[in-house]
User: Which sequence fits this backbone?
């Protein structure tokens, strides 16, 4: 099924198809983001450098500001980004260990 722009949707099937299409795009973007975690794991020299609370706060603040500028709820987006960053840190830690143990 082809996707219909949100304002043109007249059925739940159209809405669901649109959401599914966006989810596919989001997963592709997350794969790209996590590839950067692989790069970070390769570049960083110390495992303790993987967690950077200052950078985490900065990334969440940036996402919140972008969300609010787009008319989205800042708190909800900040919460999503907190989970995303924690998942990214866990992924990067595993990648860091894998790079060093071969």
Assistant:
């Amino acid at each position: 099924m082809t996707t219909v722009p949100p304002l043109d949707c007249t059925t739940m099937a159209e809405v669901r198809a649109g959401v599914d299409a966006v989810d596919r795009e989001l997963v592709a973007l997350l794969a790209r983001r996590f590839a950067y975690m692989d790069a970070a794991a390769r570049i960083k020299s110390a495992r303790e450098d993987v967690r950077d609370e200052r950078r985490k706060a900065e990334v969440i603040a940036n996402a919140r500001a972008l969300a609010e500028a787009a008319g989205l709820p800042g708190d909800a987006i900040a919460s999503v980004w907190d989970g995303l960053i924690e998942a990214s840190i866990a992924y990067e830690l595993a990648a860091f260990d894998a790079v060093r143990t071969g």
User: Anything to note?
Assistant: The chain has one domain: 6-101. The chain has a mean pLDDT of 97. DSSP finds three helices and no strands in the chain. The radius of gyration is 17 Å.
